[in-house]
Request: fold
Amino acid sequence: MALPETIFKLLKPRRKASGSELTREAMANIPRHVAVIMDGNGRWARKRGLPRYSGHYAGAENLREFCKWCIEFGISYTTVFAFSTENWQRPQQEVDSLMKLFLEFFARYEEELAAEGVRLRFCGETGELPQSVQDTMQRAEASSLQRNKLQLIIAFNYGGRREIVKATRDLLASCKAGELKPEELTEEHLSARLYLPDVPDPDLIIRPSVELRLSNFLLWHSAYIELWFAKVLWPDFNRHHFTAAINDYASRQRRYGGLSKEERG
Ligand code: IPE
Ligand code: IPE
Ligand code: MG
Reply:
């Protein structure tokens, strides 16, 4: 097994690159919540002749960096896709290494996350995960409640369809209990039954790795979300790419089906 240290060395030169800066427009229009599909770890490893799990380690390392950029830019929430409800289809060895990495990430970086003021939250079918992962999640959530620089939401065993099915099940139970009438149901009732109803909807989804799809991420929330795709694998996604995404986001007009400010007069 290649030691994570080997991977950290590979990442070092990349970390020094600071890249371009935020535009004034971007500074005035920072998204409150940015979501990321952390994809391309396997290809990153393959390109270097390393086993796939090395790519996952490199991806986790990049997540640390990413949190720092979010804090620097004044982003309050980030949701990162780390393991999907479909990722169980991967070979058992890879699934096991992802669970192990999850535990190691917190063992290694808990103090650093605390020092940076990162609050941890999780979304997904967490009850189906190994007990050790569930225990780590509960500890990380409980010990970070008071931190307020950034909320890092890790989507782990997350699927957008599963989230909607869960919310629908809760709605049906409320109807059955007589708390709600089916004809009175609104979007807000469903939203309130998603995994983290208090978290504002993400403004932007970033997907590195060259794929142009959502892969079952944040299906309900993505109705009017802005999308940004990067032709770079997640472990290579750096501050320069992130700055470009935020600058691009700030230059867009979000109309939600209405008219732009100029056209409204
Ligand atoms: C994303 O990287 C991480 C997970 C899905 C767990 P991949 O493992 O999907 O990397 P590629 O897409 O095969 O390169
Ligand atoms: C999406 O990546 C899930 C995560 C990054 C955790 P996948 O690699 O699973 O998505 P597909 O299979 O390319 O659609
Ligand atoms: Mg992938």
Q: What stands out?
A: The chain has a mean pLDDT of 94. The longest helix spans residues 92-116. Residues 86 and 159 are 8 Å apart (CA to CA).
